[in-house]
Structures are given as C-alpha cells and as structure tokens.
Amino acid sequence: MSKHNYNSKLDMGLHEYLYKGSYLVGDEGMPLLLDNAYIDLPTDFISIKDVLKGNFDLEDRKKYIHFFEYDKEFNDFLYDIEENISIIQQFAGIVGPDCTMLSGAAPLCNKVQVFYSRAVTYYLQTKGINVILLARWCDEKSLDYALDGIPNNAIICVSPYGCTKTREQRIIFKQGLQKLIQTKNPKHIYVYGQINKKIFCGIPSEKLTLIYSKLDKVHGRGC
User: Are the CB atoms for 189 and 209 separated by under 8 Å?
Assistant: First the structure.
C-alpha cells in the first residue's frame, strides 16, 4: 500500500517526492535530469506491459523496460512509482516514461505530461537505476519547453511513432529532432519506430540505434 495520501491521480503524479532535490529549469520549471552518459547500455528492451503481466524470464531481466504502450497500461504503475521501484530494480534499466502529448491539446496539459515524465525519470535516477532519457514533443508550441531538463551529451530515446503520420507532423518532429541535436548534442539516440531517412537525415548512423521493431501490434501500421 502506498505511504502517500492522495486526493486525486493528479496529486499522485506530481507529488513533490519525485523531484525533491532537483534543479528546476526553463520557464516552466522542469526538473533537470542527471547525467547518464556513462550508464550501462541496453542489449534489448522489454515492454512495461509484459513486465507487469509477469511475461519475462531471467534472460529478460538483462533488458531495459520501455513505456511505449498506451498510457492506460502503465498509469497505475507510475502513480505509485515509489512502491513499484523493486520491480524496476530487477531489470538492467529503463527508458523514461512516454506520457502522451497531443497536438491541439491545451498547452498546460502537455506541459504537465512533460513535467511528470521528467519527475519520474529524476526519481529513478536518484535510486541508482540506469535510465535512458526520453525526449517527446508534439507541436510547435511544445518545442518551447519539451527539451527542458535534458542535460547535454545524454543518452536519449525518441519515437516518431504516432506523431509523423501527416506532412505537418513530420515537419514538427524533424524540427524537434534538429533542436535536440543542436541544443543538447546527445551522445546517442535510441529510436523506437522507423528511422525515416527524410526525418533523420544529417544524423550520423553510429549515433542512432533502432530499439524496437514489432510495433504494429501496439500502434497499428505505419508512422
């Protein structure tokens, strides 16, 4: 049972213990994440959905957990992340949670999702867990804050899945990727989804790793 008393799920997600001790940066005060440039790199990945269902064996524990599922599959797990830390510690590491952002949503809603992902990531880092930092944006407005809190020269994960179906979405995703490269100079980028050459052109291939390919079962066909 959780040791925290929450009045709502919003309270649970933004509880101060998650980001206590962090520097808050940018206009929106996003938690500044810790340097992860020297973490143990993953050999493979496993879905949080499979982890929570117990669909893993001893070999799977050498993998990193990823959150590229529908939010409903992991919301309850994240809301009590402190109580679930022992599950994560069984694995080699984890990718920062991919909290859904929606183009056209009220800006505050998307800002909360970024903050929540940063706060959980920071908390996991302070517990000594290997974390690949997630970078996610959804529209032009989100580019003003979506990369805040990500340190320079970090190991990062991005995903074009679900947000590059239209020409406009592809333009926004490429703009965000270019800003990520220019302002954060990531050490390595793991890509969940297809590496579209038109979007990822200009990034040295040795800096990119496709981390997961069986996507159709979760998100449907195509980017």
Answer: yes
- The span from the first CA to the last CA of the chain, in angstroms, equals 39
Task: Name 64's Cβ contacts closer than 8 Å, sequence gap at least 6.
Answer: 42, 44, 45, 46, 91, 92, 93, 94, 95, 130, 132
State the Cα–Cα distance between residues 196 and 223, nearest whole angstrom.
9
Q: Where are the beta strands (DSSP E) in the chain?
A: 24-25, 30-31, 45-47, 64-66, 93-95, 131-134, 155-158, 188-192, 208-212
Closest CA to 120 of 68, 67, 173, 158: 67
Q: Which two tokens stand for residue 213?
A: 């390919």
Whole-angstrom Cα distance, residue 137 to residue 114? 9
CA distance 34 to 121: 9
Low-confidence ranges of the chain (pLDDT < 50): 1-2, 213-223
CA 210 – CA 105 distance, rounded (Å): 29
Backbone angles phi, psi at 145, to 5 degrees: -140, -15
Contact of 195 with 164, CB cutoff 8 Å: no
Interval 129-180: pLDDT, tens: 999 999 999 999 999 999 999 999 999 999 987 778 888 889 999 999 999 9
Question: Would you state the pLDDT for residue 222?
Answer: 37
